[in-house]
C-alpha cells in the first residue's frame, strides 16, 4: 500500500514537471514569434521610410538616457542591425525618449566628455523618424 502511494506521488510529481516544461516551452516559442514579428515590422517600416524619404538612415533603439541638458541629451543607443551599443549625443533634443526606435543619419566623432572616439552625434535634422 505504501509503495503504491509512493509510485502515485512520483507520477504526480513527474506529471507536474512535464506540464511546467511544456508550458514554459510554449511561452518561449510564442515570445520568440512575437519578437520576430516585431523585428520584421520594424525592418519593413525602415525600408518604406528609406524609399519615401530617399535618405539612408540606420535604425537604433534608445536604451537609456543618462544625462539631459538644455542643449541636448547623452544616451546609449543600440543599433538594430548589429546589436552594438554606442554613446550618442542628441543635439538640441534634451527630451529624447528612452525606449524609442529612431531612424538616424548622424555622424561618429570624438566625445570629449568621456574621451570616447566613437560617440554618435545627431542633430535634429538627422532624426529621420521615430518608430
Write the layout of secondary structure elements.
Blueprint: H1 2-53, E1 58-69, E2 72-79, E3 85-91, E4 101-104, E5 107-111, E6 116-122, E7 127-130
Parallel strand pairs: 3-6
Antiparallel strand pairs: 1-2, 1-4, 2-3, 4-7, 5-6
How many helical elements?
Answer: 1
Order of helices and strands: HEEEEEEE
Query: Which percent range fits the helix content?
Result: 25-40%
Radius of gyration: 24 Å
Commentary on this structure:
The chain has 131 residues and is of the alpha+beta class. The protein has one helix at 2-53; strands spanning 58-69, 72-79, 85-91, 101-104, 107-111, 116-122, 127-130. The chain has a seven-stranded mixed sheet, with helices on one face. A hairpin with a 5-residue loop joins β2 (72-79) and β3. The chain is elongated, with a radius of gyration of 24 Å. The chain starts with a helix and ends with a strand. The model has no long low-confidence stretch (mean pLDDT 83).
Features:
single chain; 131 residues; alpha+beta; 1 helix; 40% helix; elongated
In short:
The protein has 131 residues and is α+β, with helices and mostly antiparallel strands.
Amino acid at each position: 500500500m505504501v509503495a503504491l502511494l509512493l509510485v502515485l506521488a512520483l507520477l504526480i510529481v513527474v506529471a507536474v514537471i512535464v506540464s511546467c516544461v511544456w508550458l514554459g516551452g510554449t511561452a518561449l516559442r510564442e515570445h520568440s514569434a512575437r519578437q520576430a514579428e516585431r523585428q520584421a515590422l520594424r525592418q519593413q517600416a525602415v525600408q518604406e521610410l528609406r524609399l519615401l524619404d530617399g535618405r539612408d538612415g540606420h535604425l537604433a533603439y534608445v536604451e537609456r538616457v543618462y544625462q539631459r541638458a538644455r542643449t541636448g541629451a547623452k544616451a546609449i543607443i543600440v543599433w538594430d542591425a548589429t546589436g552594438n551599443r554606442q554613446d550618442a549625443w542628441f543635439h538640441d533634443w534634451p527630451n529624447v525618449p528612452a525606449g524609442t526606435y529612431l531612424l538616424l543619419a548622424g555622424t561618429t566623432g570624438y566625445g570629449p566628455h568621456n574621451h570616447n572616439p566613437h560617440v554618435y552625434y545627431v542633430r535634429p535634422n538627422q532624426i529621420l523618424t521615430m518608430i
